[in-house]
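ok here's the first one, seq then struct tokens
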Amino acid sequence: MGSDFVDYHCHLLPALDDGAVDVKESLDMARTLSSFGFGTVHCTPHLIRGGYENDPGRVVRAVHLMQRRLDDEGISLRLVPGNEHYLDQYLPEMLPKALRAGGSRYLLVEVPFHSGPDLLRPMVQTFAGHGLSPLIAHPERCSAFDPVRPAVGLRGVLSLVLGKEPELDLEHAEIVELKRLGCRFQGNIGSFAGYYGYEVRERALLFLRHGLYSCVGSDGHRSEKLWEMLVAGYAAIESVLGETETGELMRGVPLANGA
């Protein structure tokens, strides 16, 4: 697999949010990620006003300390400071000093799981005013990105007769329009592995088949079962994309190219 995969979403830093509980668990997670083939990990603790107050300065300091520990332990992994920014009314005021994904114009954003699409297009406009674009975390887990189920026409009737669900219509789905407007999307490796349930897995595979993801992330919170999740998720991605395209997605090549 090599050692050039990029994890764009990981809660590896110890005791900052609901991720790794201590340095030992952070080191265990780092060893697993490195062994699997990751060379770079974006450390993205939650930034939620009134919840997890992980401002950029605090994250940068934590990354520097953790990087020294990794180097001392001989773990070949480069850590990058970031945040998982929660989409709420406080986010716009945080944008001027926000940590971008690897120095790019993209900011990792978590859309509330049960929000409607009315939040999303104003977000794109607000980001653009700061020269930024949203990198939306795990859209497959958010109801705002549910694909549109078309009216049952002739093809739909034939599908039902054959015992199949009518194919979902992505052409007019909110996620496709947001990508046209400049949003990019990060898929959770665990979603492809079915770690969040059947519906999330099917949505993730649908988005993957239609080329909607620009990068992936482990969204790792714990060391336990992290390896198994990575193996299963990678296999599911490769079964859809093949080896070459899977490698490009795991390295974040589409994101680097703006795709």
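and now the second one, same deal
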Amino acid sequence: MKRTYFITGIIVAALSVTAVAASAKGSGGKMRGHHGPQINFEEVDTNGDGFLSQDELTAHAQARFDKVDTNGDGSLSAEELQASMEQRMKDRAQKGSEKMLERRDANGDGVLSPEEMQPKGDRTAKMFDRLDTDGDGKISKEEFEAAREKMRDGRKGKKRHGQPDSEQN
């Protein structure tokens, strides 16, 4: 009985993640922040009929569970969960580094030089000007800490990056 509730919970969580991902993808937006592994419709629609049945959803959730349950005992230990999360982080880091190389490797040599790592355009100057709130050409510790706090507040959902101050979440 507990296992049934557990599997149902996993299915609900997977569907929630999928719905949010589909919504973000469908609207042309990018998902930001923490989210679980992305699944696609075709992956779950195992019979290819263009619809998802309860059996397909259950089977997909069970397959994902089984993949994390590396010792096959029917439950997830802290070690198995940690290993799964670490693998996802490694995969994400790998994809991120490949994308960065693709975007910034101007000479195509497969490595990034300090010049290729520099911000493009006048980003550095704009960032400096934004931090130097009193316009004296230097960033004081107070200005630095104020910017850091503003960024921290933005991450907590108080203000999204790029929104005017009047537009709050």
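notes on #2: The two ends are 41 Å apart (CA to CA). The chain is about 60% helix and 0% strand.
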